[in-house]
What does this fold into?
Amino acid sequence: MKDLMKSLEQLPWYVKLILCIPVLDIVWAIYRIAKSYYAQNTLGIILGILLIIPGAVFVWAVDAVCVIINKEVWWFC
It folds into this structure.
């Protein structure tokens, strides 16, 4: 799983932006859960799980803006 996280972090920003499309945003939800798991952040794991389906309605836009501005996906771990 750490290899997946590293490979997602090393993607070019335009590929990250493509992965922010609402249907493909599930990739970033899994990334958030894995990142929280390795940081041993229980709240992050719970929020990551909650953001998979109901959060996907609005989080994809937040991800897209963050990727455009910061070149990385938003998460607090």
Summary: Residues 2-70 form one domain. The first helix runs from residue 2 to 9.
